Amino acid sequence: MLSIIIPTYNCAPVLSGMFDSILCQTFTDYEVVIVDGASVDGTMEIVYAAQSRFPKGRLQYISAPDGGIYDAMNKGISVSRGQWLYFMGADDRLYDSQSLMQLSSFLHSPARVVMCDVFSPRHGRCRPRFSIMTWLHNTMHHQGLVYHRSVFSDRKYDVSLHVMGDYEFNLWLYDRGCPMSRARFFLSTHLPGGKSGTVRWENYSEEIRVRNRYLHNPFARVFCAMVSVLKYGIKTSLC
């Protein structure tokens, strides 16, 4: 089974489109896990109403205050039942009705992470990859990554991070030599917006802090930190 874990907080306007993109799938061996941070905008009322659209037991939900998105994702891991885990944002969409069916053919491989393409209206095809560029910016888009449950057996997401927890976790997997498989099809559509997409120094300082956990060469640390500062300066000047 595939568990689709969706952290939510005050995102009522975008939920229906997300649910529609899941319900149209031809592959049906999945569950949806909503982990809500005690929304006050009607988010949970939409979730309750959607429950009747899913087969019995295939939509479960939690709604309680949490410590942020990575705390919510960790809760989702704990309550989910699938051997494979996929994290969606409430404003993300599965690309088309065949997305999960195409994914299913990769879920029997020895890989522990499946890396799929993501469509962005702003950037077009986003291809996840680990390369030297990963040390300069996050080249692994969480909307295109599917994880085997076993990768979370030793640890989960670092809840002390606010926007770079998925980047940090992927660097940790890469550092450990986790086997990964490349799937060359669109799994999802990522719409513009979100906390990590805004130009805030917090994002860049966290990026530097995360990289320094795994970059052991002091010259590489300084160079990559300078790139982060330069990226921040360029983007703020364009805003």
Question: What's a quick, concise take on this entry?
Answer:
By secondary structure, this protein is α/β, with parallel strands linked by helices. The chain has seven helices and nine strands, in the order βαβαβαββαβββαβαα.
Describe the biggest sheet? 9 strands, mixed
Radius of gyration: 18 Å
Number of helices: 7
Give the CATH H-level superfamily of the largest domain: Spore Coat Polysaccharide Biosynthesis Protein SpsA, Chain A
Helix vs. strand class: alpha/beta
The CATH architecture classification of the largest domain is Alpha-Beta Complex
Question: What share of residues is helical?
Answer: 25-40%
CATH class of the largest domain: Alpha Beta
- The fraction of residues assigned to DSSP E strands is 15-25%
Oligomer: single chain
Distance between the termini: 43 Å
Query: Any idea how many domains?
Result: 2
Overall strand count:
9
Q: In terms of per-residue confidence, which ranges show pLDDT below 50 for 5 or more consecutive residues?
A: none
The name of the CATH topology of the largest domain is Spore Coat Polysaccharide Biosynthesis Protein SpsA, Chain A
Mean pLDDT: 93
| Shape summary | globular
What letter string, H or E per element, gives the SSE order? EHEHEHEEHEEEHEHH
How does this model look, in words?
The protein has 239 residues and is α/β, with parallel strands linked by helices. The protein folds into two domains: 2-198, Spore Coat Polysaccharide Biosynthesis Protein SpsA, Chain A; 200-239. 34% of the residues lie in helices and 21% in strands. The protein contains seven helices and nine strands, in the order E-H-E-H-E-H-E-E-H-E-E-E-H-E-H-H. It has helices spanning 12-23, 43-50, 69-79, 99-104, 165-175, 201-212, 218-238, and strands at 2-8, 30-36, 59-63, 84-87, 93-94, 113-120, 124-126, 145-148, 180-189. Helix 1 links the parallel strand 1 and strand 2. Helix 1 runs parallel beside helix 2 (43-50) and helix 6 packs antiparallel against helix 7 (218-238). It starts with a strand and ends with a helix.
